[in-house]
Amino acid sequence: MEIQHLRHLVAASESASFAKAAKKCFTSRQNIAHSIKVLENKLGVVLFERKGNEMLLTPDGVEAASAAREIVEQVENFDGCLRKTHCRATC
């Protein structure tokens, strides 16, 4: 499992569409689908169900997307903290 898989899950959960998530993440729909499949296999649950043209989160998907969102936010905050620290140390 990679942070990019979690970012793809968050984007897909927010847009209810792998195609829209792909545009948001500057990648292909196939990469989003692959990330979701990796996560489903790793977690042993189904994250999305198809309803017409929409992809809706399952109850397990809601829980996973919420946790993924928190992890992605923490990683982004950590990156920002490191950049500030690095800048202070070198400036």
Structure description:
- With 91 residues, the chain is mainly alpha-helical.
- It is built from 4 helices and 2 strands.
- It has helices at 3-15, 18-25, 29-43, 59-90, and strands at residues 48-51, 54-57.
- β1 and β2 form a beta hairpin.
- α2 crosses α3 (29-43).
- It is globular.
- 24% of the residues are buried.
Task: Give the tags.
75% helix; 91 residues; mainly alpha; Arc Repressor Mutant, subunit A; single chain; two-stranded antiparallel sheet
The total number of structural domains is 1
DSSP, total strands: 2
CATH topology: Arc Repressor Mutant, subunit A
The stretches of 5 or more residues where confidence is low (pLDDT under 50) are: none
Task: Give the strand line-up of the largest sheet.
Answer: 1-2
List SSEs in N-to-C order. Answer: HHHEEH
State the end-to-end distance. 36 Å
Structural class: mainly alpha
Q: Please report the first level of CATH classification, the CATH class.
A: Mainly Alpha
Mean of residue pLDDT values? 89
Strand content: 5-15%
Helix content: over 70%
